Structures are given as C-alpha cells and as structure tokens.
Amino acid sequence: MSTLTATPAPPTSQRAGQNYWMWLLVGLGVLVAVSAVRVITGAHEIDTPGSLRAALIATCPILMAALGGLWSERAGVVNIGLEGQMILGTWGAAYFTYYYGPWVGILGAALLGAIGGALHALATVTFGVDHIVSGVAINIIGLGASKFLAEAYFANLQGGGVRQLTGLDSPPSVTIPGLSDGAVALADQRWFVISDVASVVAAFTTRVNLMTVLCFALVGVSAYVLWKTSFGLRLRSCGENPQAAESLGVNVLLYKWVAVTTSGAMAGIGGGFLALVASSGFVTGQTNGRGYIGLAAMIFGNWRPSGILTGSLMFGYTDSLRLRSTGAIHALLLLVAIGLIAFAVWKLVKTRQTVQAIVFAVAGGLFLLWFLATDAVPREFAGMTPYLATLLVLAFASQRLRMPKADGQVYRKGSAG
C-alpha cells in the first residue's frame, strides 16, 4: 500500500537561482530574436547605439513615475496623480535650474513633486478621500499650477514665455573612452548578435547623462530600502495589512505620509528629467501622459523594482520609436509576431492553457500577416506605439499580478481589532 508524502518546497535561494537562470535565458532569447529581425529586415536602426541611447532617455521619466507609484502603493495608497506631480517637477526643475544650476534644479523638481505628493497624502491618508478622486484632482491641479507659475515667473525671463523657458543647463554627461569607441566600432559591423551586444554596451558608455545614472541608481536604492530594511518592512506592512501593523506599534499614518510624499518626489524627478535632459527646456504639459505610462509599468512589473525596470525599458523603447523611421517600426511587427507565437508555445507547453495559447498564436499570426502584407506603417502609428504597447502588455500580464492587499483602501486610525 503506497503512502503519500508531501514534497518540500525548494529553498528560497534555490528558487531565486532558478528565476535568475530563467530570466537570463529569456534575455538571451530576446537578444537573438532582435538580432534575427534586424538581419532579416535590414532595419539596423532598431538597435543602433543612437536608438538605444534615445530609448534610455525616454525610459528615465517613465521609470521615475513607476518608482513613485511603487513607493505609494506598497504603503497602500493608489497614486494616479503621478502625472500632475511630474508636471510640477518640470516647473520646479526649470525655475531652480535657471537661478541656481542643474543640480539644484533636480532638488527643486523633487521638492515640487513632493508638494504634490503631500497634497495627495493629505487628502487620502488624513481626510480619507477616495484615492482615484484625489489623484485626478492632483493631475488637474498640477497642470493648472504649472501654467500659472510659468506665466507668473517665466514670462519676462530671457528664453522664457507664458508657457515655456528654454536654454536651461543640463547635468553633465560622461563617456568611457576606450570601451565606448570599441563598442561603437563593433556595432557598426552589423554582425549577428555580437553587434547587438556592442550596441547595448555603447549606449551605456557613450554620452550618458549623470541624471540618467541617478534614475537607475534610485531603483537600487528603493529596492534596498523597501526590501532589506526594517523601515521598508513596516512600510510594506501598511500596504498589506495596516490593522495588523498598527497592532504591532507601527505608526501607519506616518508611514503612508512618508511613502506618498516620497512617491511625489520620485515623480517630480522624472518631470525634471524631461525639462533638463530629454528636452532643452520647460514647456507646460510636456509630460504627455508619461505619468500614466509609468503607472502601467509599475503594474506590469508586479509592484517589484526589477519588474518595474523591465517594463519601463520596454515602454521607453516604444516611446522613442516616434523618433525613428517607419521602416524600423515595420520591422518590429515581425518581432512582436515572434514574441506572441513564442508566448503561445510557452502557454501550451508549460501551463497547459490551450485557449490562451490559441489566442496568442492567432494574435501573433495577425501581426505576421500585417508585416508580410505591408512595406511600411503609417507615421501616425509611431506616436501610438507606447500606448498600444501599454494595452498589450497589461492584457498579457494581468493573470500573474498581485497588488498589495490593502492597496486603495481608506484606512482609519484605531480600526485594528
């Protein structure tokens, strides 16, 4: 007579190692697919050093908005006011940079964004206003305030106007001479895979603005603070079970205030990046919906720093496509088709989800047919790519997402027990 025995779960370190190798294989697969598409179509512009450098610049504002959303929602407060806080950050960066230089301008962007975050915290944490209603109000206030402040402070300045301030100094850029030159030379050879790897290296070593380095560094800092410190553990407990956290002596309201204010500061830095690096100055409303895309990147990343970084890079790349030729975008139709078909195979073999596998395979087939039946895509489609990618990715990733349990819930002090 046989007996049933429970199979112990693999240790955490073993699971982490398995995830590491899985993501490494996925990354290699994507690299090979991109290289194959580039060679087949002849659209070498899809991953030249210049294209990837433009993608990095487009990534940073989205990444900072997503990181701001992570801080807020891990404490249980939904922050769709990221767009308005980014807009405030653009004005703060312009004003403080004009008078005090770019590094003070970054602090000014964080300060104005933090003010927007504090307003959201006041409404949601202190007064218990619905998080969505408050976020929408912050977006409206941010846009209106930036227009008013620009007209009040920039209209009479050199290079200024009622809606703009140009000629701002940018933080310095750095280049690693030997590594950069060698990588660019290899990228120009257009070899299979090797040139693609060289393009990535060249993008990260050639004329990289120090503010870009700061944005990526903040991802690591946030991951360490939120997951490796007691402060981060208490903050995340406020987003999972605030009543239990309060019963253990955690000042839930204070932690929520800190998280939402920090969230606004992160979004403000993203707005400052737009004013100081991505463009040559401030223009009212220049965020162009990136706060919402950052929110989508946060959801796609499953409220995790590594996932947020991956999602932001992808959205940043699609956002930068509007600067590329329509031929390069047409080549990406083939890449999307390959990705969808590969995902369908994985669904069928790994998870045995036949219906979903068929849906993804059909979608991949449609993209392949689109690629084969056309020679180019309309110029207007290039501007749609970041928003289309947002919809597709969220649709594909929806089943594996797990938001903090108390995210979006109104919390009242003393409700524990």
Automatic annotation (TrEMBL):
Membrane topology note: Multi-pass membrane protein
Transmembrane feature ranges: 20-40, 52-71, 103-125, 131-150, 208-227, 257-279, 291-315, 327-348, 355-373, 385-403
Superkingdom of this protein's organism: Bacteria
Localisation: Cell membrane
InterPro entries: ABC_transp_permease (IPR001851)
Keywords: Cell membrane, Membrane, Transmembrane, Transmembrane helix
PANTHER family named in the record: GUANOSINE ABC TRANSPORTER PERMEASE PROTEIN NUPQ, SUGAR ABC TRANSPORTER INTEGRAL MEMBRANE PROTEIN-RELATED
Official protein name in the record: ABC transporter permease
Organism of provenance: Nocardioides aestuarii
Lineage of producing organism: Bacteria, Bacillati, Actinomycetota, Actinomycetes, Propionibacteriales
